Every structure is written in C-alpha cells, then in structure tokens.
Amino acid sequence: MTEYPAPSPVPEAFVGIPTHLSFGNGNVTGLGKRITELGLRGRAFVITDDTVGPVHGPEVMASLACAGFLAEIYAVPAGEASKSLDRATDLYAWLASHRAERRDVVVALGGGVVGDLAGFVAATFLRGITLVQVPTTVLSMVDSSVGGKTAVNLAEGKNLVGAFWQPTAVLCDTEVLSTLPPREWSCGRGEIAKYALL
Questions:
Q1: Domain total in the chain
Q2: Fewest CB atoms less than 10 Å from the CB: which of 32, 78, 114, 157?
Q3: How far apart are CA 13 and CA 142, in angstroms?
Q4: What is the spatial distance between Cα 23 and Cα 140, in angstroms, rounded to a whole number?
Q5: Residue 156 belongs to some domain of the structure
Q6: What does each C-alpha distance from 103 to 24, 41, 58, 100, 162 come to in angstroms?
Q7: pLDDT for 73-96, tens place per residue?
Q8: Would 183 be classed as within a structural domain?
Q9: Residue 190 above 70 pLDDT?
Q10: What's the pLDDT band for 72 if we cut at 50, 70, 90?
C-alpha cells in the first residue's frame, strides 16, 4: 500500500476556505482516498488535457472509483490556447449536462493552464464548487496551484478574466514528474530559484 504524507493546512485567503497541501509520492493513486479523508463527497469532475490525460487519467479515475466517487473526465487540448472563455463555456456545458451540483468536486489534473482553467470554471459555475488541484509540473506545484488565483485569457491579454478561488486541497505527487520533458524542469527550477531570492 502506498504511504503518503498527511496534508498540511495552508492559511485561509480571500474566500475563507482552508487549503490542505500534501507533497510526496502516491497522491495520484491515492487521490480518491485522500479527498474522502478531507470529507469531500458527491461526484468528481476531472479536468485535464490531452497530454496529461492519457498518462495519468486512468489511475486517477480508478482511484476515485475505488473511493466510491462517480467520476467523469474531460480533456482539453494542451496549451495556452485552452485558457479561454470559449473553452470555459465548453466546460460549463459539460458540467451542466451532467447536472453537477455545488457539493460535487472539480479535480484539476495538469499543469498551470489546466489549473487556471479548471479553477476559473470551479469558481464561477453555480457561483463556486469545490476544487482540488493535482498539479503535474514543477512550476504548477510551486506556483499556480496554490494561492487561489484563477483566470482565462482574452485576445487583448493574458489573465484578464479571473477570480480568487481557494482549492480545498493541493495534492502534489512527485512520481508524476518522471514524465516531464527537460524544458518543464527548467521552468520549475527557475521559479523555485526566484522564490529563494525573494
């Protein structure tokens, strides 16, 4: 059985939702058990992209099913172009077609683009539903998955439409980093170095 560390609470911010943070091995395969331990119920709606989904989606869906969640998954095209109101509208329609409720859970499985997009959708659908971030890049683990900043882009600029919406949990799994290309490692190391200098 995979052992993974207990979540650590992160101070409440903006909307008063405490975030539980876990960093270690087994958070993907143990996702269903972990979010159940946090008291989350209902259905799980996994938002990912067409790069991460084929690699980690099956084990996430299996973990959720083992924990008793009815789960659905939606993969957007990988890349910055998916951080758009058009893509958010597609996700609203998907959630509405499944009659998603506020007690359900949106799971963001991917890097910064997926985290921002899924977070924005969770913040605005039904005026806010539960969000769990499962970042899969170094950069998203140390930056975009924490802090509650969510946004999509407009033609006029990046991150012009957004909301603050704290995730209930950020579950970082170091095992998923083995699939990262060198460029993603470089971006993540640069962000870590920036924080070290501040």
A1: 1
A2: 157
A3: 17
A4: 12
A5: yes
A6: 27, 7, 23, 8, 22
A7: 999 999 999 999 999 999 999 999
A8: yes
A9: no
A10: very high
Token pair recorded at residue 149: 């900043």
Please indicate, yes or no, if residue 2 is contained in any of the structural domains. no
Report pLDDT for 144: 67
Per-residue pLDDT, 106: 99
User: Containing domain of residue 188, as a range?
Assistant: 8-197
* Residue 34 main-chain phi, psi, to 5 deg: -65, -50
- Does residue 1 sit within a domain? no
Q: Sheet harboring 169-173: ordered strands across?
A: 8-10, 19-24, 169-173, 130-135, 105-110, 44-49, 71-76
Radius of gyration of the chain (CA): 15
Name the pTM for this structure: 0.85
- Could you tell me the two tokens for 134? 């499962």
Q: What is the CATH number of the domain that holds 170?
A: 3.40.50.1970
Helices (H) and strands (E) in the chain, counts: 6, 9
Q: Are 161 and 129 in contact (CB under 8 A)?
A: no
pLDDT digits (tens, 9 = 90+) for 27-63: 999 999 999 999 999 999 999 999 999 999 999 999 9
Look-up of token digits 């992209």: 49
